[in-house]
Amino acid sequence: MTNKNHDGYDLVIIGGGAAGFAAATKTNDLGKTALMINSGLPIGGTCVNVGCMPSKVLLATGDELFYGATPRFKAVHQGRKSAFDFTTAIKEKDEIIADARQSNYLNVMDSLENVTYLEGRARFISQNQVDVGEQVIVGEKFLIVTGSSTRPLPIPGLDQVGWLNNVTAMELKKLPESMVVIGGGPMGLEFAQMFAHFGTRVTVIEAMNQILPKDEPEIAAELQRSLEVEGIQFRIGVSIESVRQDGGNKVVSIRSRQGSRPPSSNPEVEELAAEELLLAAGIQANTADMGLEQAGIAVGPNGFVQVNDHYQTENPNIFAAGDCVGKMPLETVAAKEGSLAAENALTGSSRVIDYDHVPHAVFTNPQVASVGLTEEESMRRFNACACRTIYMDSVPKAAVIKETRGVFKMAIHPEDSRILGVHIVSPDAAELIHEATLAVKFGLTVDDVIDTLHVFPTLSEGIKRVAQAFTRDVSVMACCVE
User: Fold this and answer.
1) Over the range 294-311, which residues count as b (16 or more CB within 10 Å of their CB) and which as e?
2) DSSP state of 476
3) How far is C-alpha 371 from the geometric centre of its chain's CA atoms?
4) Rounded to an integer, what distance in angstroms lies between the CA atom of residue 210 and that of residue 189?
5) Which residues, at least 6 apart from 112, have a Cβ–Cβ distance to it below 8 Å?
6) Model confidence pLDDT, tens digit, residues 179-194
7) Which of 285, 447, 467, 475 has the largest CB neighbor count within 10 A?
8) 140 in helix, strand or coil?
9) Helix (H, G, I), strand (E, B) or coil at 260
């Protein structure tokens, strides 16, 4: 316990991840005192330890290995076939993350004069008390920021064969020869490509009729095409009947739903055998056995804490934020919610996030990035949608670097041409999306984007090109046309 000699605390923060640190920082900035109680993952929570940061280390490792051996240009006759040591990759990831944990969390905690840190499992024993080991902590206000974890699925035989999640997959001691990934969302696809680039044979199973079910169909289709070119196989629109162990393999029995499978020679029921099984098909809140009922706190399906628009629970002195409330499980959102929840709890303010302005990304290669409304959501809100889609061959930079993977889609308000949403598949899409984010946040129109000079040639011109597609045929447009 980091003791900074405070007798009482204005805010007790339960959880030591991004939301908790943002809340602690806001509390310190307000001149208030806080106690942060953390258990489970090391300080820093999911993002630094088992989420965003370590997975990006391994994705970058895989990219360097895979693309170095598959050059795009004729002049590069022989790609470099680098030697690869999986064990060293995991060790190097651990070293990088240990440094990040020290600089981004441990050092930060030491700098927060009004914040005390305590390791231990917190459990509510009353409306304003938690038990931590042998200590009873009394707080004026509480903030629950305990995060989330992989949700188990009720698949017959799953628990008997065992499965990997985002934590255990990055702790493996040897590279598996084959892997089935259950779930075609962001996490499943990132891990699928990561291991495929390392040399594992990977098949992705998705129950819905497209990967990335919450994204635009054009986005999902382009990413799937790009990943299939690299050898990843997909089974889309299927249900899982059972899982069993057969020697050294786990065998997944799947059934295609009628109408979801394109005509082929594959049988309606198929068995997929793989050395490892990775589960990435949803999350649940880390709120079990916290005594929430003792504090008058309601939870919904999968343990998510029920809060109002200002992150306040049914107990007016207890707030919750981040993944454990399930609004939008992103590290950036968790941090923003944690900061706003702390401010609301301590000052009585009612600050909120406009979730329409939050960008998000999938760190495959090519990447996916989106902000704002989809075509479907525009139709739901306005009963109309003005949308345009262009593919990467309309972007001059793509031809220069022989990069054919990508699509840009834009949705605008049907009455005043304000940009409502932008959706991208492209190398570095997570970097490109911020121009679109500013356009959505500040209500810019397609004319505002068209009238803005962009560096030539760049992939970011794709955003300008898709805006121009509302006014002209960009397939027959010179690169210098404004």
Assistant:
1) ebebebeeebbbebeebb
2) G
3) 13
4) 12
5) 24, 25, 28, 34
6) 999 999 999 999 999 9
7) 467
8) coil
9) coil
Q: Could you read off the pLDDT of 208-246 as tens digits, one per residue?
A: 999 999 999 999 999 999 999 999 999 999 999 999 999
Give the Cα separation of 305 and 240 in Å (integer): 29
In DSSP terms, 368 is beta-bridged to 362, 425
Strand boundaries in 367-406, DSSP class E: 367-372, 386-391
For 337-362, the pLDDT digits (tens) are: 999 999 999 999 999 999 999 999 99
C-beta neighbour count of 478 within 10 angstroms: 6
Contacts of 93-98 with CB under 8 Å at 24 or more apart are 93/54, 93/57, 93/58, 93/61, 93/170, 94/54, 96/53, 96/54, 96/57, 97/48, 97/49, 97/53, 97/54, 97/57
pLDDT one-digit tens code per residue, 27-74? 999 999 999 999 999 999 999 999 999 999 999 999 999 999 888 888
Q: Which two tokens stand for residue 280?
A: 């990435």
CA 242 from chain center: how many Å?
28
Length of the chain: 482
Q: What are phi and psi of 340, to 5 degrees?
A: -70, -40
Q: Are strands 34-38 and 129-132 parallel, antiparallel or unpaired?
A: unpaired
> Is the pLDDT reported for residue 2 higher than 50?
no
First to last CA, the chain: 61
